[in-house]
Amino acid sequence: MNTSRVEAFSDGVFAVAITLLVLQFTVPEVASGRLLATVLSQWPQLVTYIASFLTVGVVWVNHHTIFRNLRAVDRTIQFINLVLLMMVVLLPYPTALLGRYLNSGQNGAVAAAFYAVVMTAMSISFQFLVAWALTHPELLRPDIHPAPMRMVLPRFALGLFTYAVSIGLAFVNTWLVVALYAFTAVYYAFNQLSWGEERK
Questions:
Q1: What's the sign of the alpha-carbon dihedral 56, 59, 65, 69?
Q2: Residue 66: CB partners within 8 Å, gap ≥ 6?
Q3: What is the C-alpha to C-alpha distance for residues 60 and 10, in angstroms, rounded to an integer?
Q4: pLDDT tens digits for 8-19?
Q5: What Å distances lie between residue 141 and 55, 73, 81, 163, 175, CA to CA?
Q6: What is the dihedral angle through the alpha carbons of 140, 63, 11, 82, rounded to the nearest 10 degrees?
Q7: Which of 14, 53, 104, 182 is deepest in the core (most CB within 10 A)?
Q8: Distance of CA 170 to CAs 45, 116, 131, 165, Å?
Q9: pTM (predicted TM-score)
Q10: Helix (H, G, I), strand (E, B), or coil: what is residue 199?
């Protein structure tokens, strides 16, 4: 199958997911003079929103890089991509959950752990997508030379490692988990996939 339909569908899902992230914010009903304090009290939601927005944005950029260098997709890639998109569109829910319970002790730890599980599943599916593309050169454009697996997958396995570790870390410090996610998103923003740019 040509990649265009998969790309179009994927872009739509990414757009929906990244839009849904903002729905955790509600316009508060407050007494006169209390609006500023109420808005400032929503800063946990803002922090989790930023972390998730950056994550989804960077995943979308790298997802585009993968499909830009494919000439065709097979059924396996379609199903791997569906699993990835399922995790992406689910992310607004744990984001809202974490934003609401971030400073709530045990509830905050559970919310952070659930967020970490979703992020880990998303990272695993993305790793599978990259690995399948790199190990099936017949799907790549003719002018693309796939980089050796050892040069690409280990570098992009950092997110999988940090997300998996953060599941346990959530019960130690929820804020450290959010900071770790933000750092990982920034890392991927400046460490983009480049294997498709290597020529034969």
A1: negative
A2: 129, 130, 133, 193, 196
A3: 9
A4: 999 999 999 999
A5: 27, 11, 19, 32, 43
A6: 80
A7: 14
A8: 17, 8, 29, 9
A9: 0.83
A10: strand
Of all residues in the chain, what percent are helix, strand and coil, respectively (each to 5)? 75, 0, 20
CA-CA-CA-CA torsion sign (37, 43, 46, 50): positive
d(CA 73, CA 84): 15
Q: Measuring CA to CA, which residue among 72, 84, 67 is closest to residue 193?
A: 67
Would you kindly state where each structural domain of the chain is located, as residue ranges?
Answer: 3-197
Q: Tell me if 38 sits within 8 A of 108, measured CB to CB.
A: no
For residue 130, the model assigns a pLDDT of: 87
Report the length, in residues, of the chain.
200
* Structure tokens belonging to residue 184: 């990982």
Spell out the alpha helix ranges (H) of 24-105: 35-40, 43-68, 75-90, 92-101
Q: Bridge partners of 144?
A: 199
Residue with tokens 């659930």: 114
Cα distances from 163 to residues 112, 118, 120, in angstroms, run 11, 9, 5
The count of other CB atoms within 10 Å of the CB of residue 193 is 20
| Digit-coded pLDDT (tens) for 120-137 | 999 899 989 988 888 888
